[in-house]
Amino acid sequence: MARQHARVRAGDDRGSMAVEVVVLIPLLVMMMFLVVAFGRYVSAQGEVAAMARDAVRAATLERSSQVALAAAQQTAASAEPESLACEPATMTGAFVAGGQIRVEVRCDVSFTDLGLPGLPGSATVVGSSTAPLDTWRRTGV
Fold first, then answer.
1. CA–CA gap between residue 26 and residue 61 (Å, rounded)
2. Based on the structure, what is the number of domains in the chain?
3. Is residue 57 within 8 Å of residue 132, measured between CB atoms?
4. Residue 137 is assigned to a structural domain of this protein
5. For the whole model, what pTM was predicted?
6. Which residues of 79-107 are buried (b: 16+ CB within 10 A; e: fewer)?
7. CA 107, 109, 114: angle at the middle one, nearest 5?
8. What is the pLDDT of residues 16-71, one digit of tens each?
9. Structural domain harbouring 68
10. Would 141 be classed as within a structural domain?
């Protein structure tokens, strides 16, 4: 009789592992997609910062503000990865000998393909870089 009673108690747990798996697997998959989203965002931050750095360097090599802005925008656009949607680069600062210029690049990184509820469709990533103009150079030509 004791053996039968022990078997009944042991049988009470049947199926509990299936319930745990049904509950935990979707949570683990959602966590995995969240890690992918964070990785995508961090990667975009690095790419946008590099675009701004390259763009400001290209701008400092030019002699006039208009040509420098065009060079910055062209450099940023040529380095834009397909995974980002970027606005044209903007340039601020004094374009005079000894001055400093700042280039800002603004891009959107998309999360729509992940399909996570509660996650926004995209996030804006901003990168900027500042560089000095040579003190002994001629500008404004």
1. 53
2. 1
3. no
4. no
5. 0.79
6. bbeeebebeebbbebebeeeeebebbbbb
7. 170
8. 677 778 888 888 988 998 999 999 999 999 999 999 999 999 999 999 999 999 99
9. 2-132
10. no
